[in-house]
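pipeline/complex-builder :: batch 7 item 3
reading input block
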Amino acid sequence: MRAWGRALPVLGLVLLAAPESVAGSRARYGGTLRVALGQKRLPLEPLLADAPEEASVLALWAQSVCRLDAAGEARPVLAKASFPSPTRLRLTLRPAVSFDGGRPLGPRELLESLRRALGSPSPYGALLEPARLDEASLQADALELPLAFAWPDLVRSLCHPSLAVLSQHGGRAVGVGPFSANSSPLRANLGFPLGRPFVDALELVASDPRTASRQLATGKVELALGGVSSPPKQAARALYATYLAYESSRVGEPFREAIESRLDRTELARYFAQAPAVPMSRLLPPSLDPREPAKQPPKAPAASSPKPMTLLFDADRSDQRAVAGRLQVKLHDAGYRVSLQGLTRDKLRERASRRDFDLLLDTFLLPPSPAPALAVLLAASGHRPWIAARLSPLGSELDAAARDERARALADELSASVELIPLFAQSLRSSATPRLLGLSFDAQGLPELDGISLEGD
Amino acid sequence: MRLRTTLVLAFIAVCLVQVAAVAPFAVDSLERLLTRQQDARIDGILRSVQAALERNAVDVRRSMDELAQSEALERVARELGDGELPPQLATAAQELMTPRGLSVLSLFDESGRTLSSGHLPARLGDLDPALFSLTSHPESVSPVLVERALPSGLIRAPALATARALDYGERRLWISGGVLLDESFARFLSDLSGARVEIRAEGQPAAAAGEAQAPTVERSISLPPAELRFVFSRADLEAAQLQIIRAFAAIFALGLALATLGGLLLARRITRPVEALTQAARQLSRGPASLRVDAKASGEVGELISTFNGMVRELEAKTEQLLASERIAAWQEVARRLAHEIKNPLTPIRMSLETLVAEGHGEPARFQALFRQSATVMLEEVDRLRRIVDEFSRFARLPKPALSEVDLSELVSQALVLLSAHPEGVELIHRLEPAAFVSADRDQLTQVLHNLVKNAQEALPGGGKIEVRVRTAQNEVLLEVEDSGPGIAPEARAHLFEPYFTTKQGGTGLGLAIAARICQEHGGRLEVGGLPGKGATFSVVLPRSK
């Protein structure tokens, strides 16, 4: 306390002597932030709201246990995670945290939320794979979970937006976020554990890329997420990875070679996927596996009279249709007759979990660590048991960099067995007006909208 | 078969033959005429389609010329520069294509690589040899197969397209574009032609529109490598043919009805005199009758009627004469028999009188004895004469029967009680069916029964069996008296019911004649049956009371 007592007058003098420009860029409270979005409804299901712009909006009203900072370190939001032992995880809740609507968040609500994610057929349930929720012990302000195996990345995995903590209240899902979803525009949540957001309210404006650019230019919105026609000014990590999943029993053996040898991923990422996108030649995206791209195999002969196939894709995303069209053309050149069928994301995931498809264009918001990302991909490809069998030894590696390296090597090893053909990875496309201050991205590649302030308000 | 039926059928047959002879030729001629008209219409439609294709080619040429000189394309070429295609130009072809009414457009570099494709954006960066081949003859609009992405997969679809070159600096770009011969074009052609239109590429259906109801006729326009196939319905033609056939059927039915009606009327007119003649002849055959056929007829039939009526008149006159002769003969016979019957008693009377005259002067005692004997003979003969006269008188004056409802079985049963004292050795049995009602005079029928039973008793001097039966037939009631006597000789049967015919000693010969007459007066008849040596059966047949 004595040290603080000496430092405060010095700090005050420094601030008084600061140049006007520094004082002008300081975050100020108040105002309404208007955000243009490509989608027209608020995402309500974290396990399905995995497109970057959807996850960004979801985080406005429903946060996960923690949040990753730009360096990838977990910052507690709802609870502090720690490992009392390598095979025990303790989640200590912040005091006086309550859901939107006033219901307090306790260990039981937290456990129920995690159980819901783990029990779902969504591949994101794999992020909690080591946790034995049935053996959880509930304490007054903490939840302690035994682990099936040591998994140091579990804390960072808990920060994934798909594991946003939710509860049911009055027949609707409620969460804890910097804004309240119970109003339009969204009002600032003054009781948010990390402190209230700078803006008083946030208005979501449904738009399309051209309109969003025009709205930005005319000052009708301050921020555009997802669809904007102008190139982004700030780059986020490309962790939204798209794969072509196939069911080998339906498409036949030479399929992978036929498509891999004809697929130009650079072209796919450049012309068909929504920018910013990077080609992905390995199972993990370049932001998790920055090694040289894998070499393209020699051109395989075209298939002779294969049976017709159907490629399922997410009808809610326009670039998925374009990518599916490009794959259709390339598969046609490889001798396959492919029909396209667009499905809503929940139907798509439901078909994927049942492995009821020939071909399926699937996209995941991968966590920014190779091992949890590989767990998600193994679950998505129907190999969830491999997590315990093949991934668990990585938990014994305490050095994070070494663990990541081993995870990449394992991904290389398993990539031929996993029925996922990597295509490209995307990051959130966003654009903001100069009025907007403090826009930053976390390690997941998502913007921290509660840290934004508006100049002049 | 009756004449009237034969005539009606003959009329119908004549009508049928006429329709059957004319209808096939008429239907066939009309069918050929309609087919020729439809073929001419189809030829006209195909000429219109050819003209529409030529108009499309002109439109394509004009649009591509305009595009090749447009600022928009020049801007694309400028943005393209020398490096890689900027991502924002990937959709350039689509933006250039749509406002110009084109449905196919690709931008190529000099090597044939697709820089942008409007109809198949996913083909970007690839070679498209089919569409790029148009650059070898850039001025002409040619049919070509282009790739299209359908939800069901990629197909090769026909299009009318042409190519244009765009030189920009050192660089040359090619644009190949045109219009797809797709579903909308097929629909347009279908609307134009009224046919089902199939657009085929390499023998496979690429697009189709419209419906053609079976039966159909096919025509095609070749646009190598495509083909436009038109399927025209002949259902209308068939409907017209069917309508004609129906009209013929209606005419036939009407003709048939008229022929039947006319045949009936005519046959009636023809057959009525013949039927009247037949009826008269049938009536005549049952007995002489005063009748005339007064049906109107002319010609041979009229002559026949006139002849028939003359013949009937002649027959009546002859019958009258015959009846008069028969009556005279009958009375002569009656007189002869009556004289014979009367003559017989006269002889003993005369002889008795002559004996008395001869012995009048003789011994009184002998005279007295002869007198008594002669008087006795004469009295007997006089009684006999009186009986003959009484019988004759009864026969001649037989009263009209007083008819009433009578149960013949009950009548016979009562009458037989009175006849219970029959000669020794004769057995009388009866079998009577109840409720055998007739309309009859009880006394007269009782008399008939007495006569028949008495005759039977007299036929059995040495004893025998008499059976009296009453039974009912369909419309008749039969009273039968059967005896086991010697029967009746065949030659006697013909005269059995004639007055004064008898085979018995001392019989008057009027008993059966009276019985037969009573039966006749009751609307019935008396019949005799049986065989000689095996008994005789007399049957009274009377109409059954209703």
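note: Chain A has 14 helices and 22 strands.
queue -> next item
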